[in-house]
């Protein structure tokens, strides 16, 4: 069972922090061993089954972020905030900071992930029919061209596991479309719960698109983004304080946008800036081909500067300069010479970046 706790003030603004608030929240703490998701039984706080929160450290941390006490609900092993954000009671609590301190403008709550590239995502119990929507959600964030790079995996040691729970609620009996988990100890939140039944109730003919958007919203929480339309957390410098088109707006089950807003992408890049990769050194002295991911969206010219013995390939096209459309993959091939050059991206106004995916 869960106990409502009153303490906190909301995480808001384009802040983008943890959960997604739809309408129903997760009443379960763990999937059952048989693969199904079970409702947690009533467990007393002093029960050996329950995770304790000594001296209310996690609770006090949540309130220090600006969440309202009325938006905090205590479950056996976690606190649920703003309907769809989960804080585990055994999370690593960051060092105390002054309430309300931090960046200004768009919001995040922190703590952030120490090594967000790559962050592995697994389709857990019940999510096999929704692989395409998980992949689409991952692509939305990867195209933001930040340091965060999600990769779907089947490994049980994935950083984030997404589980289907069609009875997901906020602990007060209000159905939720999704529930994400706040980062802890420099690691991404480990769990996302998705309620396809509730998403269908609110989505109508847009169900497939809303599955993608809901999963994308929760992924945002799991890397530290708060609700854009709430007030808790730190604003992110250089971003607006509100954004009607943000995929991180809370309370929007079934009506989320199909894509990130430009400020969603900007907010992620602000808190997870990508290392400058242009120009990037290409050294093929010990190999013959290097594969390069050109990330982002839009038309771009890719060109080599240096050894004329290197050549670019994209599909059937080749040369030392290619016009392509991101996102895509290109190859750099050594034909002769020293094997050293640089890849230059002429973005032509597009938001692009690149990373080497094989050497």
Number of distinct beta strands = 18
Note poorly predicted spans.
1-48, 97-105
Record the strand order, biggest sheet.
1-2-3-4-9-10-8-6-7
User: N-to-C SSE series?
Assistant: EHEEEEEHEEEEHHEHEEEEEEE
Proportion of residues in β-strands = 25-35%
Molecular structure report:
- The protein has helices spanning 57-64, 131-142, 196-203, 207-222, 262-271; strands at residues 3-5, 72-74, 78-81, 85-88, 106-108, 119-123, 150-153, 160-164, 178-181, 191-194, 234-236, 280-283, 289-306, 310-314, 317-319, 321-334, 340-346, 351-358.
- Strands 1-2-3-4-9-10-8-6-7 form a nine-stranded mixed sheet. Strands 12, 13, 14, 15, 16, 17 and 18 form a seven-stranded antiparallel sheet that branches. A two-stranded antiparallel ribbon has the order 5-11.
- 15% of the residues lie in helices and 28% in strands.
- The termini are far apart.
- Strand 14 and strand 15 (317-319) form a beta hairpin.
- It has five helices and 18 strands.
- The protein has 359 residues and is α+β, with helices and mostly antiparallel strands.
């Amino acid at each position: 069972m869960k106990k409502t706790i009153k303490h906190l003030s909301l995480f808001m603004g384009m802040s983008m922090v943890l959960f997604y608030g739809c309408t129903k929240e997760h009443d379960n703490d763990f999937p059952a061993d048989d693969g199904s998701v079970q409702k947690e039984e009533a467990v007393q706080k002093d029960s050996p089954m329950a995770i304790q929160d000594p001296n209310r450290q996690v609770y006090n941390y949540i309130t220090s972020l600006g969440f309202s006490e009325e938006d905090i609900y205590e479950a056996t092993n976690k606190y649920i905030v703003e309907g769809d954000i989960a804080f585990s009671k055994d999370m690593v609590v960051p060092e105390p900071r002054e309430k309300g301190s931090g960046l200004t403008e768009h919001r995040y709550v922190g703590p952030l992930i120490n090594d967000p590239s790559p962050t592995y995502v697994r389709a857990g119990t019940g999510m096999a029919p929704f692989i395409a929507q998980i992949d689409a959600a991952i692509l939305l964030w990867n195209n933001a061209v930040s340091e965060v790079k999600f990769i779907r995996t089947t490994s049980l040691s994935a950083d984030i596991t997404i589980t289907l729970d069609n009875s997901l609620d906020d602990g007060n009996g209000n159905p939720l479309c999704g529930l994400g988990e706040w980062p802890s100890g420099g690691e991404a939140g480990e769990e996302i719960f998705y309620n396809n039944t509730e998403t269908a109730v609110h989505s109508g003919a847009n169900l497939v698109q809303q599955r993608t958007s809901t999963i994308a919203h929760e992924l945002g929480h799991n890397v530290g983004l708060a609700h854009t339309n709430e007030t808790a957390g730190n604003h992110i410098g250089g971003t607006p304080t509100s954004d009607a088109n943000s995929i991180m707006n809370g309370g929007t089950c079934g009506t989320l946008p199909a894509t990130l807003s430009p400020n969603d992408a900007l907010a992620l890049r602000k808190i997870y800036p990508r290392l400058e990769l242009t120009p990037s050194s290409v050294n093929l002295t010990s190999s013959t081909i290097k594969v390069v991911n050109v990330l982002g969206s839009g038309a771009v010219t890719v060109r080599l500067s240096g050894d004329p013995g290197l050549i670019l390939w994209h599909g059937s096209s080749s040369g030392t300069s290619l016009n392509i459309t991101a996102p895509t993959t290109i190859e750099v091939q050594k034909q002769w010479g020293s094997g050293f050059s640089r890849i230059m991206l002429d973005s032509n106004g597009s938001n692009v970046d690149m990373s080497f995916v094989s050497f």
